[in-house]
């Protein structure tokens, strides 16, 4: 990894947190949402980590049953037992109800080992998808672990800083490439590392995989054309660029000079961001992040 990323405290997977607890002698249980009857706020495969002191990370029901699930995990850890339990509709826990009226099946794994977790972590570190089969009471379930999403930001100004902060809080690992010293100072005051454009322009494309996104926030748009051309050679799930519709049309014309096929143009989101009428740096940052998340959730892996 050549770029400098600020890592999110809310990664896609809970594997490293589980490793950290086990390394200091704590016990953990890993719960996986393996079935949904009706509607639920989180998709199947969502996980929750519980420690032997009852602390938990992650969400399965959005707050409806997490405390009860954590309490049950403590009991199962004491028994060293793995099991699958139903919550909500048709559940034996009649006092725990999900507002949506649905039922969910949760697999409790109290025997997951440091060796197993380290194997998963190594695959994710190498930016590889890792599938694991869980043998549950409702049948075999494939939990697919995904590398954390990365976001590489280029440009200047407060939108870049605000977007970086929002993305980090939303689970992205973020690398910022500052066009000028003023933006470097803004990033530093926010506790974010910054790379110079000269260094990053030759290295960033190597790190844009299918779990990577890139946004150009330049005001001098001639600086971005070569970067966008390189980004289009990658598997990045999102490429965005700031500017008006007129600016975007001129941008696409410039890309033709770099021998970019016109069929690739639709991969660039420009003007960047969902159309929510954003007219402040903060609202523009929100609109961009919303569009990135939308594209991320729509991708086919």
Describe the structure.
The chain has helices at residues 15-23, 66-79, 114-125, 158-169, 181-189, 197-200, 225-231, 245-257, 281-298, and strands spanning 28-37, 47-51, 56-58, 83-88, 103-109, 130-136, 139-145, 150-155, 173-178, 195-196, 212-217, 238-241, 268-269. It is of the alpha/beta class and 301 residues long. The chain has two domains: 15-145, no CATH class; 150-298, 3-Layer(aba) Sandwich (Rossmann fold), CATH 3.40.50. The protein has a six-stranded parallel β-sheet with strand order 10-9-8-11-12-13, with helices on both faces. The longest helix has 18 residues, at 281-298. The protein is elongated, with a radius of gyration of 22 Å. The chain starts with 14 loop residues before the first helix and ends with a helix.
Helix content: 25-40%
CATH class of the largest domain: Alpha Beta
**What is the total domain count?**
2
CATH architecture of the largest domain: 3-Layer(aba) Sandwich
Strand content: 15-25%
If strands are numbered along the chain, what order do they take across the biggest sheet? 10-9-8-11-12-13
Q: Any idea what the CATH superfamily of the largest domain is called?
A: NAD(P)-binding Rossmann-like Domain
């Amino acid at each position: 990894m050549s770029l400098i990323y600020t890592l999110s405290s809310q990664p896609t997977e809970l594997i490293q947190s589980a490793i950290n607890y086990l390394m200091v002698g704590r016990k953990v249980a890993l719960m996986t949402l393996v079935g949904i009857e009706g509607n639920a706020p989180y998709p199947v495969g969502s996980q929750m980590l519980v420690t032997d002191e009852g602390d938990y990370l992650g969400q399965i029901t959005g707050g409806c049953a997490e405390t009860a699930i954590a309490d049950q995990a403590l009991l199962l850890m004491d028994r060293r037992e793995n099991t699958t339990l139903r919550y909500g509709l048709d559940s034996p826990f009649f006092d725990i109800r999900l507002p949506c009226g649905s039922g969910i099946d949760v697999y409790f794994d109290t025997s997951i080992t440091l060796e197993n977790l380290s194997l998963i972590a190594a695959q994710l570190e190498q930016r590889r998808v890792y599938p694991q089969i869980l043998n549950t009471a409702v049948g075999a379930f494939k939990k697919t672990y995904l590398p954390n999403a990365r976001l590489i930001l280029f440009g200047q100004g407060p939108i870049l800083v605000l977007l970086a902060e929002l993305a980090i809080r939303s689970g992205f690992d973020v690398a910022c490439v500052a066009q000028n010293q003023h933006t470097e100072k803004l990033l530093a005051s926010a506790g974010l590392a910054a790379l110079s454009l000269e260094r990053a322009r030759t290295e960033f494309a190597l790190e844009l995989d299918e779990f990577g996104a890139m946004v150009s926030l330049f005001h001098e748009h001639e600086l971005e054309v070569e970067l966008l051309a390189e980004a289009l050679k990658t598997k990045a799930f999102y490429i965005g660029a700031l500017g008006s519709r007129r600016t975007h049309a001129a941008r696409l014309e410039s890309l033709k000079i770099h021998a970019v096929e016109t069929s690739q143009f639709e991969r660039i989101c420009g003007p960047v961001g969902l159309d929510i009428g954003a007219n402040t740096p903060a609202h523009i940052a929100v609109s961009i992040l919303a569009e990135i998340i939308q594209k991320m959730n729509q991708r086919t892996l």
